[in-house]
Write a structure and sequence with these properties.
single chain; about 350 residues; mainly alpha; globular
Length: about 350
């Protein structure tokens, strides 16, 4: 007779299960599948939404800093209606491409089970808000800004049009009354003083300005403040808000061009306005919208950097600027920028 061969039984735990199976049970009991990497604990570092929002907002500001130079150069050879139509047509087309890509990716990648959507379905009120924000905030801002460029010296109108963060700071100080917004209001007053100094000095050195240009630049600033505060208060994505506003503005600018008998002969200046449409108009607003949405509008003080950067670009191009008083006004705006950002950073750290 041959020897009996004993089969080794797997070592069992106190529960009577093999140790490998016991490990699986312990993992499933804690809600972890085998092979799934462990989730970071509560002490692990998480991405800061404020930093991500600031990166997007600064990207939009970088595009906006080139807007005045490209737009004023195109207005030297093109009619206002054509300038507006080219920028809104190219910008809306670029946003439409982005919307198509986003929709295609969302259809190919269905949501996983148990996942919650990042945005709720927009209501009728959200769509009404989106129409107002897109038409006035997006289309109105760019339209009146270029009317200001056409009927007033570009340096003055550019400074006034980019004074919108001060309007936003005043609105936040009125609606949200606390120490940080009160301090921001003081710095906003300093910024208003600096903008007024630069505007008055430039106006004194130039007699080519028209009241229509200055009023249009001021309306552009108000509409931009409205856009900044309103784009994060609707469930409609920012790109769709801008597509709505861009479509309305494109139609209105086409009417202006046809009514004024504009010359449609293509020139190299068309490329400048196509860049404005794709860059500052579409990409700039889209990046700024994402930054404002992620920060719930708290990063609006970053907009104070826009008039400084755009003015520096104009000066490097050889555009004239006033003397020492204008430099003092620029210093006031810089002080306002740093002051509001410091106050906003301290208030954010105190809420953590």
């Amino acid at each position: 007779m041959g020897r009996r061969v004993r089969r080794r039984r797997p070592r069992t735990s106190t529960a009577g299960l093999p140790r490998r199976a016991e490990g699986r049970v312990n993992q499933s009991a804690h809600g972890v599948r085998p092979g799934t990497p462990a989730r970071p604990g509560p002490g692990a570092s998480r991405p800061d939404p404020r930093r991500a929002g600031a990166a997007f907002a600064l990207g939009g500001i970088a595009f906006w800093s080139t807007n005045a130079l490209a737009g004023s150069s195109a207005l030297a050879t093109l009619d206002l209606g054509i300038v507006l139509f080219l920028q809104f047509a190219s910008g809306t087309l670029a946003l439409g491409v982005v919307e198509t890509v986003v929709r295609t990716r969302s259809r190919r990648r269905p949501p996983s089970a148990g996942s919650t959507p990042l945005r709720q379905t927009p209501t009728r009120g959200d769509w009404r808000t989106a129409i107002w924000v897109g038409t006035l905030g997006f289309g109105g801002t760019m339209t009146f800004q270029y009317v200001g460029f056409a009927y007033a010296p570009v340096v003055e109108s550019n400074i006034i049009a980019y004074g919108w963060p001060m309007f936003a700071a005043v609105w936040l100080a009125v609606t949200v009354r606390n120490k940080s917004t009160a301090a921001s209001l003081v710095f906003a007053f300093v910024g208003f003083t600096g903008v007024a100094m630069m505007t008055l000095v430039q106006g004194g050195h130039s007699a080519s300005g028209s009241p229509l240009g200055y009023v249009s630049a001021l309306l552009s600033a108000l509409f931009m403040a409205f856009y900044t505060l309103g784009v994060g208060r609707t469930r409609v994505p920012a790109r769709r808000v801008m597509i709505i506003g861009g479509t309305v503005a494109c139609c209105s600018s086409l009417v202006i061009a046809l009514a004024t008998g504009a010359d449609w002969t293509p020139t190299t200046a068309w490329w400048a306005m196509i860049y404005v449409g794709v860059g500052p108009c579409a990409a700039g607003y889209l990046l700024w919208s994402v930054g404002m949405t992620r920060s719930h509008g708290r990063l609006a003080p970053l907009g104070y950097a826009t008039p400084l950067l755009s003015t520096c670009v104009l000066l490097l191009d050889g555009r004239t600027f006033g003397g020492t008083i204008a430099a003092a006004g620029a210093a006031c705006v810089l002080l306002c920028t740093v002051g509001v950002l410091v106050v906003d950073g301290r208030s954010a750290s105190s809420r953590l």
